[in-house]
Structure formats: structure tokens, C-alpha cells
Design a protein that fits this description.
seven-stranded parallel sheet; 2 domains; about 425 residues; alpha/beta; Rossmann fold; 18 helices
Length: about 425
């Protein structure tokens, strides 16, 4: 009955949210390409690639979740060398990153809308052996269709904030039947385990294994271009703004300008969360009489420029390698925060603002263990940046402390993969 109500209301909800959805797609571009996949229609080429494969279907919304999905898929492949995967994603940015990053044994598609005729078409074509949902992407028709076909559904890296739990509990009558059908839920912490239990997931199916986002056991190697820039810029201190949001670039420009007299070789590197804002940010840099160069125009180095603007996706971890200090975006003028782990795993000291809600537990622990610095405003950001640029020992101590905080999450990806493989082969964990 609940699912019937959901499907009856689904078209109404689509009409209500469609204007905002289309507006976001227009802004980010690329919305027309493969749009039919969102409705469960696939090209002959895609259908042929999937024929008879029965892949593992991994669903991840956008960039952050896709990076988790790729790490997890690699571990699953290590356990089963003949593994085939389908990776579905929601956003055009995420889709572009996935297409660029996946190995040949993975196929990238847009996620089908969770309307029963759309989802049925998708299941008929993909015909998955198992489904792995990253974080909290649990959709009623997807889970119901999987249960009908006796396909196990796993929720991986299922972090759940207190706010999200309260929101779900308000509608527990509607969401609990879907959560009850999950076969395995891998959570970062015991607190997350308790929250999922409160929402109807059976306790034996919940396993606290750590956070895949914080698993730095498999570091990447920097690209050749980053390595060349490291060789040419080793004498320059670099202030890096990672995954910045509107307003934060302006603050970092002001920090950069305030510190240049003391650090004449200082270089500014900005990696906005949404690369479509590159023109806006470049204009702001030029309005301060700075000489920026975009990553897309970077060939042999940044000689003669003050700033490097990253206008590409999926390379953030590479570029952290060159930083001296890193500011973590979406934490000062926006709320939620971005993941500081990639910067820490690159052995860089991190600074963030007070709004790290999406990583509240980690941020709190980093501050308590002196593994990061939290600033409240522009003046504190200037003072902290100045102090860390002056003091190499303080930078190294921050990194050492931060890596100690991340230590319990090492091998989380491997632990999650083993549980997924076990439930697929035996039907229980």
C-alpha cells in the first residue's frame, strides 16, 4: 500500500521539482547527452555490452560518492577477477568524472528515475547480480524491484547524520519498509549503526567497518603535469583552496593579497567545487590585478602567473600534492564542508571554517587532536595562513596528528568488499 501511494504521488512530485531540476541541469551543461538513460532507455551499444553479463550495479550520486564507488569496485574486483560492473550516477559532473576514470570492466550510465515503469525497464537491461548503493541512496522502487527478483541490496559507507535521522524518523511509517529490505548496511561508526537500527534496518545486517572516504591505504600517484609543476615550483609557498564555494574564492584572494608582501613568492591555487564557475572566479582574480592561468591552458608550468585555477574535475587529489597549506571549501561562506581527507593523505595541513556539518565527527576529532585548524572569519584565516606559512614544524605536526585520527579507517574499503562478497555468495553475513 505504501509503495502504491508513493507511485501515485511520484508524477506529482516530479512536476513540482522539475523546474529546479531542469534549471540545475541547464546550468551544469551536458544534460541532453544520454538523457534517455534517466528514463530507462539505453542505446543498442549499451544493451549489447550488458547482454548476459549480470554485473554488480553500483549507484553513486556525484563526485564524492563516485570516488568511493571506484575504490570499492577495485576491491571487489580483487576478490573476483572476472567482476563486471555498472556504475550509475545522477549528475552530469559525476558522469563526466566516472567516464574518465572507470576501467574497461565498468560501464557508466545515468541513474534511472525511481518510477516503477522506468525502474523495471532498467532492471531488464542491466539485469544485476547485486546492487551496491553508496551512502544514503535508498529508493523504494529500486529496492522493491530488487527484492522481487531476489537480488541482494547493499548500502555501503552508509553515514547518517542526526539531522537526516530526524528527517527519516518523521516519515518512519513510509521509509521503514524499504530499509527493512536492505540485506547489508556497512556504516562508518557505531553511532551510524544505532541510527539505521532506529529506522528499521535489522541489527544483524548492520556492520560498523569505518568510513571509506577516510581510507587512505591506497594513495594515488600524481599526474605527470602535477609532477612537472612540483619540480618547477618547489621554492614557492602555495595557498590552496580545495572544493571552494561562492564567496570563499574572494576570501582566499584577500588572504593572498594580504600575505604577498611577507611572502613575495606566494602562489594561489583554486579548485572550485563547480568548475562551471571558472569564468566568474577568473574575473574576480583579474579584478585584483592578479595574473591567473587555467589548468586547461597549463602546458609547461606557471611561470609568470600568480594563480592557477583548476577548471577540470577528478584531479583534486593530484593537485593537493603541490600545496603548502590547504583551505577546505564549503565551510566558511557555505554550510556542509568538503572532505579534508584527500588533503591530509597528501600530507598537507588543513584549515576549514566552522561549517563542517557533513564531516562533523571527523572535524571535531581533528580539532580536538590538533590535526586541523578551524577559523571563524577572514581575519582568522589570514592569521592562521601566515602562521603556518612561517612555521614548517607546525605544518608537519598538524599532518602527523591528522593522520593519527585517520588511522582507524585504514582498510575500510577491503572490509566492506569482503562483507559484500560474503553476502552475495552465502546470502548472509
Amino acid at each position: 500500500m505504501i509503495r502504491l501511494i508513493y507511485n501515485l504521488l511520484w508524477p506529482v512530485g516530479l512536476l513540482l521539482f522539475l523546474p529546479g531540476y531542469l534549471s540545475k541541469m541547464f546550468r551544469r551543461g551536458g544534460y541532453r547527452r544520454n538523457f534517455g538513460q534517466r528514463l530507462g532507455f539505453y542505446s543498442a551499444e549499451s544493451r549489447e555490452r550488458l547482454r548476459g553479463k549480470h554485473p554488480t550495479w553500483i549507484h553513486a550520486v556525484s563526485v564524492g560518492e563516485i570516488l568511493i564507488a571506484l575504490k570499492l569496485a577495485k576491491q571487489l574486483r580483487a576478490l573476483r577477477p572476472d567482476l563486471e560492473c555498472v556504475l550509475t550516477t545522477t549528475t552530469t559532473t559525476g558522469h563526466a568524472l566516472a567516464e574518465k576514470s572507470v576501467p574497461e570492466w565498468m560501464q557508466v550510465l545515468y541513474a534511472p528515475l525511481d518510477f516503477w515503469p522506468v525502474m523495471r525497464r532498467a532492471f531488464r537491461v542491466i539485469a544485476p547480480q547485486r546492487i551496491v548503493l553508496i551512502e544514503a541512496e535508498v529508493w523504494p522502487n529500486l529496492v522493491a524491484e530488487a527484492r522481487k527478483r531476489e537480488i541482494p541490496v547493499v548500502l555501503a559507507n552508509a553515514r547518517l547524520s542526526p539531522r537526516s535521522e530526524r528527517r527519516f524518523r518523521r516519515f518512519r511509517f513510509f521509509v521503514a519498509p524499504t530499509f527493512l529490505r536492505l540485506d547489508l548496511v556497512c556504516v562508518p561508526s557505531s553511532e551510524d549503526a544505532e541510527r539505521w537500527k532506529n529506522l528499521g534496518v535489522k541489527p544483524p545486517r548492520i556492520h560498523a567497518v569505518g568510513n571509506i572516504k577516510y581510507d587512505v591505504s591506497n594513495p594515488r600517484h600524481s599526474s605527470g603535469q602535477v609532477q612537472r609543476l612540483i619540480k618547477t615550483e618547489t621554492t614557492r609557498p602555495i595557498l590552496f583552496g580545495g572544493s571552494t564555494h561562492r564567496g570563499e574564492e574572494k576570501m582566499l584572494i584577500e588572504v593572498f593579497c594580504a600575505l604577498r608582501s611577507e611572502f613575495p613568492k606566494l602562489f594561489l591555487l583554486l579548485a572550485p567545487r563547480h568548475v562551471e564557475r571558472a569564468s566568474e572566479i577568473e574575473a574576480a582574480l583579474r579584478s585584483h590585478n592578479l595574473r591567473p592561468i587555467r589548468r586547461s591552458a597549463l602546458a609547461n608550468g606557471a611561470e609568470g602567473f600568480d594563480c592557477l585555477l583548476i577548471d577540470s574535475t577528478g584531479e583534486l587529489r593530484d593537485w593537493y600534492e603541490i600545496a603548502t597549506i590547504v583551505f577546505i571549501g564549503k565551510s566558511l561562506t557555505a554550510h556542509g564542508g568538503q572532505n579534508p581527507v584527500e588533503a591530509i593523505s597528501a600530507r598537507k595541513p588543513v584549515i576549514f571554517g566552522p561549517h563542517m556539518e557533513n564531516f562533523a565527527s571527523l572535524a571535531k576529532q581533528l580539532i580536538a587532536e590538533n590535526g586541523a585548524v578551524c577559523v571563524q572569519d577572514l581575519l582568522e584565516l589570514i592569521d592562521t595562513s601566515r602562521r603556518l606559512l612561517r612555521d614548517a614544524a607546525a605544518r608537519e605536526q598538524l599532518v602527523t596528528n591528522a593522520l593519527r585520527v585517520l588511522q582507524p579507517h585504514r582498510e575500510t574499503t577491503a572490509r566492506t568488499a569482503v562483507l559484500i562478497e560474503k553476502i552475495t555468495t552465502s546470502g548472509q553475513v
